[in-house]
Design the sequence.
């Protein structure tokens, strides 16, 4: 499971010396496949590219011109839309809110899940396996089951419309999977390392910080990237528990009622909101795919 | 769950364990587990119980109404649409996504630029389903001027059936009669040597053909009919039927000459100044007419965001996102198939298709079912992309369970009883599929 990535190469095929003619025949046979893949690949990029180019079209023209028209009329392109959304406060503050929620919603569940994962993997206590089973069973609960009661709870205790409230909700729903993943990873850490530390008189907390966390880093990194994107991309939770505390998705959503009229805000804001996860994805592609492969139960 | 007991039995640490097992290590474990326990208890377990019990109460929360909310789920038209739509999602999307993933996975397997292709197809997975929704909302705009999908269709349609230069024009005087469909005909016939004036109005400035010149009245021609088609409109003045100063000729208009029986005998296109010449006309009366091709409406575009197509439209956008997921998982499965197995099948004389059907697909079956089942769960919970693509007015038609749950609870109706019932219903649908997936997933590991 851990060796797979987007660019997983097929196992090398042993190549016996081939005549040029045969190689040409093979190439000719593959040409339709090449053409098909190039066309489909480009087609897959068109929607995102289209949004990007549309977001560059001058505000006066953005409602009447299609993005492809910039190729015949390059003067349509300006950065005015981006300049004006950054001149206004709404989108930048929504971006900042998103950053806080995404960071908090990534760091907190990882700390909590790592502590629990360590306990499930290496500490002795009665009912351990049953408890672990119970935690994993919570994976099946869709977050819709908690929206209404937590909405009421947050309204009562003043967590409604706060960044902290959103972080706590994301944390709780990240835990079943995070604990499952980290416990399974931690259990693979050689026992000798832990015992050596125990004999040296290290406390469990020291072992956790000095041994488990550094050795568990690959799993933690994978989890962190996956969770960061998950929280960054969330709409449902923030829409339910926030009103003025708006991450970027909700800020864009509130403009969607007048889609055409607000396109000069929606298009650039949507592109910024997707550019950040895209960069994270391209930088940490391998980790992301690992998280995804492991996370296909979520 | 068996691995938990088999693999890890760390020796008791420090002091020997007490008879009951409730020693120091248990306390340590409790400390390690406490944050997770509180979060899971308060944010998942307690709400779960609360939602289940709330689903048996009415909107106010005071009246216990047994299963009435669940009955409403099937009786209310809007909610029932959501169930039907979600059933359609489950029936269509997982199957198609898995198939597309399989095709892409197999095709990219031994192609040199396979990596680039995979990144392109996988990329939508990184962005939010909401942002994907915004992207496709733009793609699906009805006007071919702006909506990419309709623009692409328009290119094909206009090549087959080109639009007229003046789709919105009307005659400026009573002299021209008829309908745009049959062509506008000059009511009084003309003979050879006369000049026909065909005035049109109702043409917006943007629709005037490029390079139009000021209209002129052409000289009469011996043995032929000449004439002019012009925009018979001067802002704030001008006489209808007369060519006033500054009025523009209309180029590219198809002028037909019809005989007394109404049959077309000649056809010509107008010049930049709107004039046309039909020479070698026989004797007798003829009727010049502006042909119907001139008035052909430009392609209006498919109404993807309308009530009838919204669900397939959202599905397509959703598959654009998830195809990459299926492809990557299946490609990983393909890479794990032993090469010599496939080579052996080929050596035994199997064709590529036979090898694919009889060897590759059966070996991939576990991966394919993981993808398929995962997609069923995802599709049952689909929300963001629907709310992003479907405009408010068609959200009832695009409705799905998760969207119905949210709209019932927070979208104005604010019926927590019914909302809870929808949430529980979704929960019940997800459980069997997820249990299946977890069991399979653990076997894979």
Sequence:
């Amino acid at each position: 499971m851990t060796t797979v990535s987007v660019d997983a190469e097929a196992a090398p095929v042993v190549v016996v010396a081939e005549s040029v003619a045969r190689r040409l025949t093979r190439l000719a046979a593959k040409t339709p496949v090449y053409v098909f893949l190039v066309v489909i690949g480009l087609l897959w990029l068109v929607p995102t590219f289209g949004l990007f180019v549309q977001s560059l079209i001058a505000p006066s023209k953005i409602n009447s011109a299609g993005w492809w028209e910039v190729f015949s009329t390059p003067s349509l392109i300006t950065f005015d839309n981006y300049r004006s959304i950054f001149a206004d406060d709404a989108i930048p503050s929504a971006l900042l809110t998103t950053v806080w929620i995404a960071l908090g919603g990534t760091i907190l569940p990882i700390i909590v899940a790592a502590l629990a994962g360590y306990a499930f993997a290496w500490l002795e206590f009665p009912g351990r396996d049953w408890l672990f089973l119970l935690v994993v069973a919570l994976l099946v609960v869709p977050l819709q089951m908690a929206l209404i009661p937590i909405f009421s709870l947050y309204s009562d205790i003043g967590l409604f419309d706060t960044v902290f409230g959103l972080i706590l909700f994301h944390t709780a729903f990240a835990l079943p999977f995070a604990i499952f993943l980290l416990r399974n990873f931690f259990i693979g850490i050689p026992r000798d390392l832990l015992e050596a530390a125990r004999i040296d008189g290290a406390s469990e907390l020291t072992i956790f910080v000095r041994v488990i966390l550094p050795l568990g880093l690959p799993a933690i990194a994978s989890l962190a990237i996956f969770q960061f994107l998950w929280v960054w991309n969330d709409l449902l939770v923030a829409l339910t528990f926030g009103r003025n505390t708006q991450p970027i998705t909700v800020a864009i959503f509130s403009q969607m009622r007048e889609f055409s009229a607000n396109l000069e805000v929606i298009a650039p804001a949507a592109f910024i909101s997707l550019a950040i996860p895209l960069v994270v994805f391209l930088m940490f592609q391998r980790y992301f795919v690992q998280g995804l492969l492991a996370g296909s139960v979520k | 769950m068996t691995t938990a007991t088999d693999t890890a039995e760390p020796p008791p640490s420090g002091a020997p364990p007490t008879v009951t097992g409730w020693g120091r290590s248990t306390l340590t474990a409790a400390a390690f587990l406490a944050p997770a326990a509180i979060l899971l208890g308060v944010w998942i377990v307690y709400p779960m119980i609360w939602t289940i019990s709330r689903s048996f109460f009415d909107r106010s929360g005071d009246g216990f109404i047994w299963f009435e909310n669940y009955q409403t789920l099937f009786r209310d038209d809007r909610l029932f649409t959501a169930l039907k739509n979600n059933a359609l999602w489950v029936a269509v999307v997982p199957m198609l996504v898995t198939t597309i993933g399989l095709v892409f996975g197999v095709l990219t397997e031994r192609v040199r630029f396979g990596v680039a292709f995979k990144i392109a197809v996988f990329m939508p997975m990184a962005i939010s389903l909401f942002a994907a929704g915004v992207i496709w909302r733009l793609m699906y705009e009805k006007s071919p001027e702006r909506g990419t999908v309709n623009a692409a269709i328009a290119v094909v349609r206009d090549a087959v059936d080109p639009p007229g230069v003046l789709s919105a024009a009307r005659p400026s005087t009573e002299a021209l009669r008829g309908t745009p469909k049959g062509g506008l005909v000059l009511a009084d016939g003309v003979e050879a040597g006369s000049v026909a004036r065909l005035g049109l109005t109702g043409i917006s400035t943007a629709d005037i053909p490029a390079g139009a010149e000021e209209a002129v009245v052409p000289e009469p021609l011996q043995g032929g009919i000449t004439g002019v088609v012009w925009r018979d409109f001067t802002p704030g003045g001008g006489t209808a039927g007369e060519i006033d100063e500054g009025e523009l000729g209309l180029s590219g208009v198809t002028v037909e000459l019809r005989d007394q029986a109404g049959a077309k005998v000649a056809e010509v296109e107008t010049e930049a100044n709107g004039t046309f010449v039909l020479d070698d006309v026989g004797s007798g009366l003829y009727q010049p007419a502006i042909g119907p091709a001139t008035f052909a409406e430009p392609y209006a575009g498919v109404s993807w965001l309308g009530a009838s197509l919204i669900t397939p439209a959202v599905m397509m956008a959703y598959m654009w996102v998830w195809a990459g997921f299926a492809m990557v998982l299946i490609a990983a499965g393909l890479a794990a198939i032993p090469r010599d197995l496939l080579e052996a099948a080929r050596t035994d004389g199997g064709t590529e298709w036979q090898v694919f059907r009889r060897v590759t697909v059966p070996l991939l079956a576990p991966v394919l079912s993981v993808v398929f089942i995962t997609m069923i769960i995802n599709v049952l919970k689909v929300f963001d992309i629907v709310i992003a693509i479907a405009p408010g007015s068609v959200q009832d038609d695009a409705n799905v369970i998760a969207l119905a749950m949210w709209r019932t609870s927070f979208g104005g109706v604010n019926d927590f009883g019914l909302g809870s019932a929808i949430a529980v219903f979704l929960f019940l649908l997800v459980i069997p599929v997820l249990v299946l997936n977890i069991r399979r997933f653990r076997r894979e590991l």
